[in-house]
Amino acid sequence: MERRFVNLLLYVAIGGILFPIVVLMLWAFAREWPWPHLFPTGFSVRGWIHLFNPTTGALPVLLYSVMLSSLVAFITVTLSLPAARALAFYDFRGKRALEIFILSPMVIPTTAVAMGIHVNFIRIGLADTFWGVVICHLLPCIPYGIKILTGVFEALGDRIEQQARVLGAGRLKTYLYVTLPLISPGLITASIMAFVVSFSQYFLTFLIGGGRVMTFSMLLFPFIQGGDRHLSAVFSLAFIGTVLLWVFALEVLFRRWVKKGQYFYM
Amino acid sequence: MKSEKLRPYLMLAPVLLVEGWLIFAGICTALKQSLGHFPVAGLNGYSLKYYIAILKKPDFLRSLAFSFYVAFVSSVLAVVLGIFLAVLLVHSPRKENLSNYLYRLPIIVPHTIAVLLVLSMLSSSGILPRLLYVLGMTDAECAFPSLVFDKAGIGVILTYLWKGAPFATFMVYTILKNINPGLFEAALNLGASKWKAFFSVVLPLLKPAIIPSFLFLFAYAFGSWEVPYLIGPTYPRTLPVLAYTYYVSPELSERPYAMAVNIVMVAVSFLLIYIYSKQMTRARW
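The joint structure predicted for all components is written out below.
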């Protein structure tokens, strides 16, 4: 009896979380939805045509945005790997202070530092450029990379690596054939978080990119602001779909790289 | 031997350089301009007059209070609901069921889309007013109280709640599922009520997840621009929206006000970092 009650509450909670997304899906295919109808009164794919129509340029922006955020995710993970290792395995002076500093962008509002960064980037010519946007996206992304990878390294320990070293593998070989495959689930999670954070950035992109660097978030924002429910629903679903597809593609790629059975997971 | 000692610093160097550069560039420029040193606009020398000026503005004080209110209410509610959902998930008979994945969906949905979701539920043409009308509880479109763009910030709070509660669940769930159920049962056997056992045995164990989630959610809600800009009231504005208004003003002389507001936000975040580091020390002990 109580179990049923727990399950019921759980379904209500999950339903409450997902219900708005169902409404969003209805909007994405609604031609008109006058008050007070509970369902749309007409069917339309106007937004989808807008999305896929080559003349509107929405798809190229989506691809460009995916590329930009993938690059941000790649740089984030590459920079975070050694740092997370250092935090997990080494004891050194000032470790706690450095750790807090590295994680601080999770708490320092990006809005507040973005304006100062913007003034600086204008001075050194990074404002309104692709690389300027990539670099400033690293700020909110790196703490996630570090946090996730440090946790993975700590859980894994360094005993297996030491075994590889004892058995005669060099540093590089150990890293490539032992460490990286062992932490690959963490690599996936860190990449996903960095990608999502970068892909979702609006304010930073808009301020630093100055409207020249067009990401998908920037296409979506005016639709939500302007109140075209149908178009914003279509673009939002495209956004969520792209993220899910990217996550799926990444998992498949990694699984192919870490061939089944060849390595063992902790 | 010496190179071994330097090793961790070298491994941290790339991250420290990138973050240090961006944070210092951001904060130092903001600090300089907020102190009135802004040669491009013909402002030279340093003074505190812009801070004194904003502290005297009722606009700024309302914004500060409003930001605190929105951030506090949304993050407390998110953590409470998050814990509740985590408890449900742990007690659900099938542990690795679909719910375990579905609840995480809001984590990958950006705040701008969360705003759209709240609008499609609660705005005057949203689903909730329609439902109430169909059920005969209201008799016209305008009879529904405005829950978005409202002075109480309900739209803003609900947006943060929808995003934040699953995040808190995610953080709490990992610890909760590893807590030995024997502890809870022992408390029951010793005569504690279920609630008492939960509050004095389980909740303290969850602290390492609860406090970081709360601080993170609070900081985000306090410092994010998109949500209050899209779904918040025109007055009072939250601090980020206020700073942005000053920043894009065609009058360059308004710029120091924007930066002063930014520095206030940074100061609040430093306070949060301080609380977090205190908490970490205690957790380690």
